[in-house]
Write a structure and sequence with these properties.
The complex is a heterodimer of chains A (472) and B (105). Chain A is of the alpha/beta class and 472 residues long. Chain A is globular, with a radius of gyration of 21 Å. The radius of gyration of chain B is 20 Å and the shape is elongated. Chain B has 105 residues and is mainly α. Classes of the chains: A alpha/beta (472), B mainly alpha (105). At the A-B interface, helix 10, helix 12 and helix 14 of A face helix 2, helix 3 and helix 4 of B.
Chain lengths: 472, 105
């Protein structure tokens, strides 16, 4: 195993491949071996895809030897949340016991795009059953068991892209693909000390991905840095005729300098956070103040949480209608998920439509306020990772409120979460940078600046870091 | 597994009877003038409806938890209903306002 490849950024791995210092087969084998050895400790993987990965790596190796490189992802291994359809007999389980042997004869657009760009799928990663859509409130809500945090196996990885956060944080994959309806990329990024990017709604095709809510679902990367996230986003975004919501615009990643030099803080998004989280956030502000004016703002009062919840519950009631009527919820792992889908079947059409109308008005009122700034910043979550057996909804003060998450997901806004320090219990915390629709280059460049100045993202769990790999 | 079909008419009839009984015993006052229940009536109706509909799929403990879920749902719904909106505000899809280049950076 070539341990010096672990925790290396994509550009560095790419450079080693281009210079023929490592081959796609060597790098793929290194990560496959590491996955097989360590993933059972963390419950972070559903299926390791050794054979197809090595076949693909062989083709990529031949191309590399001929000097034909497809791009920055040529020969780079990755993992995908197990809600993205894969063919070739690789199961797609959605984290649910009743689907654990289910195989599709087509694949998700994201998987096809990454293959075309030379990335090698080496694992389907663990997730909360049905992406957490049945209302789970504790980590043991997946048929693969509770996914553990690379910083402390007694702590939770976050969800629902649990394996994506945990595997990147443990150095089992250079990057991973996750999805977010509300919090499912940013929460594992926060808990596992990695960088997670929730793209603008419609940036990335959802074709072949398990739907939870048609108007809220987004797909995005979790990686070791914001630069890695930008590289991956460029390779997975774009119009897809199979997904009506996908945007026409082509996303070209560039370190786009923020133009206004102004950041906003929504007061309400900070005041309920734990003390350690607040202190790390204040430290982050002191770093960002080098380049930005930072202004505290108030946003108009809208029922953000209620509208987002009603939209998600109504759309998921329709998506999972057959599942619910057939009594399949009873096969789910978490006790609370077994009855989770029933209450939402009573939502009236007029209430769903009211939520959509509120979304429209919110968009009209809130976007112009955010537009005065390069981005809005806040702690990613109110707390660091909670315990592996803990009810996370009641574990910390204010844990039920997620103003940034409610607004961001309701309006389809992009956000990146980057590590910004540790708690006294040595668990990572995150800084969230959220922008207006399609402002990924702006928020990523703010994150890049931060990560160049204070490289919290280069800290990795000591027990997982190879010698000379720069651990904690 | 097609649970609903396996239970066929027996389940259906039982469900209809249960719902009728619940309605009879719960003193529902439905106003045909405004088509609105009071929220507490609506919660009771929803609870009866849901627990009867899924009576074979949820045990007693789950039905109690289900009531809590419904209460939370009713709270959310009440907040939305209390939020006054002019009728000009339609329910335009999120797709339509994001799928253009106005915001491109």
């Amino acid at each position: 195993m070539m341990s010096d490849l672990i925790y290396k950024p994509i550009r560095e791995l790419h450079s080693l491949i281009v210079k023929k210092k490592i081959s796609p087969i060597e790098i793929t084998t290194t990560f496959l071996d590491r996955l097989e050895e360590l993933s059972p400790v963390y419950n972070s993987v559903v299926t390791v895809v050794r054979n197809t990965a090595l076949e693909e790596a062989k083709v990529l190796e031949k191309e590399a030897l001929q000097g034909s490189i497809r791009g920055l992802l040529h020969g780079i291994p990755y993992g995908a949340k197990d809600l993205l359809a894969t063919k070739s007999g690789i199961p797609t389980t959605w984290g649910a016991e009743c689907f654990k042997k289910r195989c599709f004869n087509y694949e998700a657009t994201v998987i096809s795009k990454l293959r075309l760009r030379g990335a090698v799928l080496i694992a389907k990663l663990a997730m909360i059953e049905l992406a957490g859509g049945m209302g789970y409130y504790q980590p043991n809500a997946s048929f693969t068991g509770p996914c553990k945090n690379p910083w402390n196996i007694e702590a939770w990885s976050g969800g629902s892209s649990s394996g994506s956060g945990s595997a990147v944080g443990a150095g089992l994959v250079p990057f991973a693909i996750g999805s977010e309806t509300w919090g499912s990329i940013l929460s594992p990024a926060n808990n596992c000390g990695v960088t997670g990017l929730r793209p603008t709604f419609g940036r990335v095709s959802r074709f072949g991905s398990m739907p939870l809510s048609w108007s809220l679902d987004k797909i995005g990367p979790l990686a070791l840095s914001s630069d890695d996230c930008g590289i991956v986003l460029e390779n997975i975004s774009g119009k897809d005729p199979n997904d009506d919501s996908s945007q026409n615009e082509i996303f070209k990643y560039s370190d786009h300098p923020p133009v206004k030099g102004k950041l906003a803080v929504i007061t309400e998004a900070v005041k309920e956070a734990d003390t350690d989280v607040q202190e790390n956030f204040i430290e982050s502000i002191s770093v960002l103040k080098t380049w930005f004016d930072i202004e505290e703002i108030k946003i108009p009062e809208f029922p953000y949480h209620e509208a987002t919840r009603i939209i998600m519950l109504s759309e998921s009631a329709s998506i999972f209608e057959d599942f619910t009527e057939q009594g399949l919820a009873d096969t789910l792992t978490a006790p609370e998920d077994k009855y989770g889908p029933y209450a939402r079947t009573s939502i009236l059409a007029k209430d769903y439509i009211k939520a959509l109308r509120i979304r429209k008005l919110t968009n009209k009122e809130v976007i112009p306020i955010i537009k005065n700034f390069d981005a809005v910043i806040a702690p990613t979550r109110n707390s660091a990772a909670t315990g592996i057996s803990e009810n996370f909804r009641g574990a910390t003060k204010g844990s039920g409120k997620d103003v940034m998450g409610a607004i961001g997901n309701l309006l389809g806004l992009p956000a990146v979460s980057i590590p910004n320090g540790f708690t006294t219990n040595k668990l990572p915390t995150g800084l969230q940078i959220m922008g207006i629709p399609n402002s990924e280059n702006t928020i990523l460049s703010i994150a890049n600046k931060f990560q160049n100045e204070v490289p919290w993202h280069k800290y990795h769990p000591g027990n997982l870091t190879p010698p000379d790999g720069g651990g904690e | 597994v097609n649970f609903a079909k396996d239970q066929s008419n027996t389940h259906h009839n039982r469900s209809v009877l249960c719902r009728m009984r619940s309605l009879i015993h719960s003193n529902f006052k439905i106003s045909y003038l405004n088509y609105e229940f009071h929220m507490e009536d609506e919660l009771k109706f929803s609870l009866d409806f849901i627990t009867n509909k899924y009576s074979l799929m949820a045990d007693e403990e789950q039905k109690i938890a289900l009531k809590e879920s419904l209460c939370q749902l009713q709270k959310d719904v009440s907040v939305l209903r209390d939020y006054a909106l002019p009728y000009e505000v339609s329910a335009t899809s999120i797709f339509s306002y994001l799928n253009h280049s106005e915001f491109e950076d």
